[in-house]
Amino acid sequence: MSVSPGDRFRDLIHHACEQTGEKAVVILDEYDSAIMRLMYEPEQLEAMRTMLREFYQVLKDEGAYLRFVFITGVTKLSMMTSGCTRNSSSELGSSSLAQKFSQLSIFSELNNLTQISMYDEYSGLCGITQEELNTVLRPCVEEYAQNLNITTDEAYALLKKNYDGYHLSRNGKDLYAPFSVLRAFDGRNIDHWRVADADGNITDEQVFGL
Questions:
Q1: Is the pLDDT of residue 110 over 60?
Q2: pLDDT tens track for 184-199
Q3: Of 109, 149, 160, 183, which residue is the least packed, with the fewest Cβ within 10 Å?
Q4: Other C-beta atoms within 10 Å of 106: how many?
Q5: What is the β-pairing status of strands 128-129 and 175-176?
């Protein structure tokens, strides 16, 4: 008898609850990464879609064992919840990225999600806030300033000029781009980076129309 990834995931949740006596917490980072990497590979994409739908079905079925589920990703969840499930290679090759995502329907089993990206109270989750830069990361800023032979105040001003200005909600916190700030600390310089990963072609398609 074969055991599917969904079966293993279900068992993992049950075992966690049995061993701890507490409900499980599931944190899924970059939920859309696997899909984006296969966006132009129709056959592999369909196999991945099937597996992910099974995965999310487990989350829905095992609600009694879960305290909460936290999911992050760069693609809006509503693009993944359409009832349209067409997936022929010709459609995937000719439609826009939004249409491609809407065809996947991987969240149709998990219809009780709450999108918190635009909530003010959660606005500081996905970036570096000024408070964090002033406290937890201050030693990094001071070292950064020394490496550039500038004052700490000048380093703060430089970081703010180049990496500050992100807002995820109307009255949300002002955020620094974490990837860029950490790269600046590590590289001891000021530069403008775009995350160079396997999803870059998707970004190019949307930003540059390539």
A1: yes
A2: 999 888 877 655 444 4
A3: 149
A4: 24
A5: antiparallel
| DSSP state, residue 170 | T
Say how far apart CA 208 and CA 210 lie, in whole Å.
5
Paired tokens of 120: 């003010």
Strand residues in 72-194 grouped as ranges (E): 128-129, 164-166, 175-176
DSSP string computed for 143-158: HHHHHHTS-HHHHHHH
Q: Which of 150, 148, 155 is nearest to 134 (CA)?
A: 155
Cα 9 to Cα 15: distance, rounded to the nearest angstrom: 10
Single pTM value for the model? 0.65
Instruction: List Cα–Cα distances, 166 to 62, 161, 191, in angstroms.
Output: 36, 12, 17
Mean per-residue pLDDT of the chain: 78
